Amino acid sequence: MDIFEKDLSGAMVSPDEPGYDKLISTIFDTMATAAEMNAKGWLTPEEVHEYLRRITGREIDKSTTLLPPFYVDYGKNIRIGKGCWIQQGCTFFDRGGITIGDGVFIAPKVNLITINHDPNPDNRSATYGRPIVIEDKVWIGIGATVLPGVRIGYGSIVGANSVVTHDVPPMTIVGGNPAKFIKKIETGSKK
């Protein structure tokens, strides 16, 4: 398993191991592409999609909109569905994998963070990832942070400035730090 596969698998990855320099170099390359997009000023949706293709290594459906600036580390582990709306100022640290379903609304300044450091202070520079999965028709409010290993269920709402540390059941509203259950969503339909 190369360092990229190991990183995505959730195993601990250390700066001391072979290939780490290539991982960091790829991250810097992706960050440079995002910085280039962010510095351009106003871009057409087609131009943004071309930058996203370069960042993620895959096509993004034309029905999805991302408004720069956009901040990202690795980029290649991001999967975005159809009909999504991603507002400006979002940060996606995707080394552990980020999957965004269809019809997801992500407000400005949302942070999706899949990576964490070893709690051992003698090995703190080592990192490990856990995937984030956002199911269809989720709405994540402004300034929210979703931490590693979280799944946000179908149709749920994450309140503004919330810190999501645990899975969110489908059709619920959560909020706070850490985010807690507020109520079930009674309207709408599950697929």
TrEMBL record:
SUPFAM superfamilies: Trimeric LpxA-like enzymes (SSF51161). InterPro entries: Hexapep, Hexapep_transf_CS, Hexapeptide_acetyltransf, Trimer_LpxA-like_sf. It comes from the Bacteria. Keywords: Acyltransferase, Repeat, Transferase. Belongs to the transferase hexapeptide repeat family. This is DapH/DapD/GlmU-related protein.
